[in-house]
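User: Peptide-binding protein, Leptospira ilyithenensis:
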Amino acid sequence: MFKYITRSVILLLFLLSLGIMAQPKTEEETGPRAPHPGLPFEISEKKRLSVRDVKNKKEGGYFTGLPLVNSDPNVGIGYGARVIYLNNGGRDNPLFEYTPYRYRIFAQYFNTTKNAPYHWLSLDAPYIFDTKWRVRADLVYDRNPNTLYFGIGEKTLQPLSYLERNDPAGRMVRNAPFADYESNLGYRRPGDVGAGEAPYVTDSRYNRYDIENPNFSFSGEYSFFGGTVRTVTGVRLSKQIVRTYDGKTYDAKFGASEQLGGVPLGSGFLDNVVGEHLPTPEGETRLTRDQKDGKILGFNGGTTNTVRAGVVYDTRDFEPDPNRGLFLEATHERSAKSIGSNYEFNKNLVSGRLFFSPVEWFTKKPPELLEKFVIATRAALMQTNGDAPFYEYRNMWGTESNQSGLGGRTTIRGYKQDRFVGQTMGYANFEIRWKFASIDIWGQHFDFQLVPFYDVGRVWDVTDRVNLKGYKHSRGLGFRIPWNQATVIYVDYAVSKEDSQAFVNFNHIF
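Assistant: Predicted structure for Peptide-binding protein:
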């Protein structure tokens, strides 16, 4: 634990030093604007929006929102909508130039063709009632019947491998793409009667389980030192219902060992007729196997209630789409039976984000084509201690967002969600956000950004083994559309050695 704290402090100090050295000159250094009169309390000029952002910021309350559409082999084709209401107040309000909005409320309905709903109601109110308090609240119903599980720890970092056509006597294929790996698990194989399997089974859902997770979270943040430092306290109340697929019937393909009169059934006319629609029981899943081997807790789900605490250092000028600034946070989350949880464990997280505009190092007035050219970086390290259920190892609580496992839209984008999970997890993201065009239409302001990016990350069995070796990498290209500045429409395409994925959603990932 002491080594973890020491490394965390070193990481935060390193990021802080980078922020001080890399920070471009602000209006305060190149010709400061006078502090806005009438502020209810001191707010650092570092938190003040740029002249350009203030000019484009919309007054009063307004709605934004779009249909949610995405495609992911893990959960199917997604559909739904998010409706957002933002209130910025008037330009005569002293806080207009120092906040992303006075409050934001949104409601989301989302489902997929594989029945993975994610419904969400959210509130965020900075400096609520003109006080130093910020309030956040989220009510979520989340169910994913296709959640991935490859185990817990460093073994999940191993490249995927499979037996050709899922044949126990078949050729082993190593360093496999995810699509080929899953396709081969869809073949039938002889069942293990001793493990309670049917005579013939499929492994099409070997790495999957179904988790239902209604949850509510609430946090209050109090500002110090002109709003650059915040202390955070909060709670999470949640229920987890876990279902496995062992023994349930799914479509499969004839296996290599199935023959009729010495002729393999997995080839020729019969295979073309039946295709992948041969009803077959699912074999023993990876989750069930780990439960039998005593490797995990939480196989039957349960209740997880936690108390949360954190501290934040934040000099970003505009939270939804920063031009400059540094964001550092350290959080602690504790689950205990005394507050109604079924499990005793705790989590610690440290993360840092740095935003700077290198063009502003050379000129106070960059050309219009480069007026927003931002380098954005993030690094995070998280550990879980105690008797945590298996599904909690993937959860990462940050003061602004919750994330799940390594892989997927918000961490290592070229790998499937929750592809890598461990007692200790670390990752980093690097993006270049270049605004190449903007337009005003029907009273709405839109920017258009091109965003190349690079992600790295890995997991460890224990925190003492954290190092800079053996990371997984992904890269890609994104397209972002900030709509009235505070709503960012997000499109990313990422690739890795194992997979490729496209995402459509809202908001930068950091």
